[in-house]
Amino acid sequence: MTMPASAPENVETPATAAAETETARRARRLLRRRPSLLDRLPPRSRLARALLVLAFGLVLGGIVHIVSVLSLPLFAERDAFARLSAIAEPNTVTLLDDPGPAGAVLPASDPAFVSAVCLYDLAEGPMKLVLPTTPDYTSVSFYTRSGLAFYAINDRAAGRQVIELDLMNARQKAELPDNDEVTAADQLIVESPTDEGIVLMRALVGEPSARDLVRQRMAAARCEVSGG
What we know:
Pfam families: DUF1254 (PF06863)
Shape: elongated
Keywords: Membrane, Transmembrane, Transmembrane helix
Strand content: 15-25%
Oligomer: single chain
Distance between the termini: 134 Å
Protein name: DUF1254 domain-containing protein
Strand order of the largest sheet: 1-2-8-4-5
Number of strands: 9
Radius of gyration: 38 Å
Order of helices and strands: HHHHEEEEEHEHEEHE
């Protein structure tokens, strides 16, 4: 008995051809990428947009950097005011120890200087500062509680053997009588932007043998509420 011959396996039927055609069509659709909005722009427009994005990133980075730097004193747990508050009373001159191997109360302190500080608080009234000058050089610098410097003077600018001035806030300065006969030459008034801050007094020690004398002159400084 003769068996019927079977169809070859590689013969393409109409159904197989149709399936392969549909698969190829789907593959072409997947491979065909729809152009984005940036691709549709002319070359010059794409360059301008890239430069705009770059400029925006640089400006944003600069703003973040500036804000971070300005915020450091506000968030520092052991800033200068906090360190000095542990050893100094408000509205009182405190003579600082000379820098030694163990370090210094204030960072970057110069051992050639004798330093004293006054943590001022203007809540009770204006403050008067009196500082005898020393033979070589004497300076006074004023800082807000967050460490912002707003005024400085030295013995050369004062032109006297004693630096004497009044520190007050804007309200206290505005309350000064208009008919006050005291001239600016007789009364130096410094306006503080904040009620609390630091007065840093420094005196140069020209000779090692003069350090004790300089410390005595600095210890004689006064920083106290004047009563207006």
